[in-house]
Write a structure and sequence with these properties.
The structure holds two protein chains of two kinds.
Chain A: E1 2-7, H1 18-31, E2 35-40, H2 54-57, H3 73-77, E3 81-87, H4 95-102, E4 108-115, E5 118-123, E6 130-136, H5 140-156, E7 161-166, H6 167-179
Helix pairs in contact in A: 1-6
Chain B: E1 2-7, H1 16-31, E2 35-40, H2 47-54, E3 59-65, H3 73-81, E4 93-99, H4 109-118, E5 125-132, H5 143-149, H6 151-163, H7 168-174, H8 182-194, H9 199-207
Parallel strand pairs in B: 1-2, 1-3, 3-4, 4-5
The chains are: A alpha/beta, B alpha/beta.
Amino acid sequence: MKIVILNGEPAKGKTTGMNAALDKIEKTLTKAGHEVEQFILRDMDIKYCIGCFGCWVKTPGRCVIKDDAYIPYKPIMNSDLLIYASPVKMKFISSLLKRMMDRMIPLIHPYMSIRDGEMHHTERYDKSPVIGVVLGDATPDDMEFIERYFKRTALNFFTRVGFVLNVDNAVKEVENAVNNI
Amino acid sequence: MQLTIFNGSPRGKKSNSSIIIEHFIKGCEEAGKVDYKVHIVKQLKKAEDLHKIYKTSEVVLVVFPLYVDSMPAMMKEFFEWLEPFVGKKGLPKLGFIIHSGFGEAIHSFFLRDYLDKIGPEISSEYLGTMIKPSTEGMAIQTSGMVKKKMRTIRDLAAAFIQSGKFDPVIMEKSAKPIKYNAFAKVIIRLIKGLGFLDFYWNYLLKKNGAKDMHDARPYA
């Protein structure tokens, strides 16, 4: 399985255990035969989406902002599993991870259609990876609340949420969670 | 009343948030006297810039759009910057208006629920969150259409000046439809089939000479 990890931990080092856990997850999954690529978002130049919709109406499918945000696009669209990883900050994912997520709208169409009884964007690509989520500093309430968020996002990105793990257990549980997708 | 307004749109001054703020101020002025100042979130360079404004405000209104099913990343950073204020005394009253291009309010429910969680922690009184659907494209709509669409914003403002509260009835009225009903869905499917539903995006694609590339998949 091809797996992409978006590491949305803004702090370097071992402050929250997130960086070390993601490195272990990468090693564990690679050892199990998966092809894993981790993007450390804090080391990349990712500017804020400014809502210009250039990626929809000027250069369809490509963001007009010149920075590093496009680098994970191809690996993501060719992966089977996309793991979003972030510490919980003010009861939600980090602004760093959200910055990358906002920049992912070139991967869908501006057009709308009715799906699951609601209006949603239509797909640009034939398939999207299943979503996995790893959260740090998360209470059970945070886990449940943020899972709800990713389930909404999955609707607009034509996919589903495969698992949501707390970083404290993620290293132990991720292989099983991946196998159950 | 001294009102501090934050425009949290990543588009800054040229945004639908600006139009909403303009109508909120009009509604306030129609109902009474209000002293206000508008700050653009994207112009705040560091947490201290926000702290200085926030801790000296009496009432704070934050207006911003839905981005990928929740707040734009710069608004998430705004909340992270406010973390030192969690549970502190002497904070301002706080309310939000969130808006989106989606015609159905359900898309904004997660964000409203987030603000319902965080709002009380960073304010002396949480006024609530108003959802305003269907705000994309206001720049190309007639002033009459925009004025009609902004009616609930002016009503919320006027009621706020009179009572100091966000009126739950007006907020509920604004957050409609939650989902399109069966009849509306039939019409939408019909309009989609005729190509009119995609008119706005196709108009912009054609204007930019990009219509032929509309289905590009550069990262396949």
